[in-house]
Amino acid sequence: MLKFFRNIRQNQLSGNKVTRYLLYALGEVALVMIGILLAVQVNAWNQERNDRKEEQQVLKQLKAEFEANRDQINDKIFLHQKIV
């Protein structure tokens, strides 16, 4: 693939087709920029997905901790009522 593009560049430069070469070069730069922007967007989506997973895990842990605390409080209340 690289050899193909190299041949295109060499043919355009050797034939004094500077304007066509410049258009080709701009197109190549545009393709590289599009590729980079796509990679950045995919990375952002992946990071957001990982953040949501982590958030759900933390929320589940908080729920479990709150339920454990509620059970402990109910046990203490029952114990104090029994003593009284």
Task: Record the SSE blueprint.
Blueprint: H1 2-14, H2 18-83
Protein described:
The structure is a single chain. 94% of the residues lie in helices and 0% in strands. With 84 residues, it is mostly helical. It has one domain (2-83). The radius of gyration is 32 Å and the shape is rod-shaped.
Termini separation comes to 86 Å
Taken together, the total number of domains comes to: 1
> Order of SSEs, N→C?
HH
Query: Which ranges are low-confidence, i.e. pLDDT below 50, for 5 or more consecutive residues?
Result: none
Sheet having the most strands = none
Query: What share of residues are in beta strands?
Result: under 5%
Give the fraction of residues assigned to helices: over 70%
Class based on secondary structure composition and strand pairing = mainly alpha
Radius of gyration: 32 Å
Whole-number average pLDDT?
Answer: 89
Overall form: rod-shaped
The number of helical segments is 2
Q: How many runs of DSSP E, i.e. beta strands?
A: 0
Essential attributes:
84 residues; mainly alpha; 94% helix; 0% strand
Give a quick summary of the entry.
The protein is an all-alpha fold. The chain contains two helices and no strands.
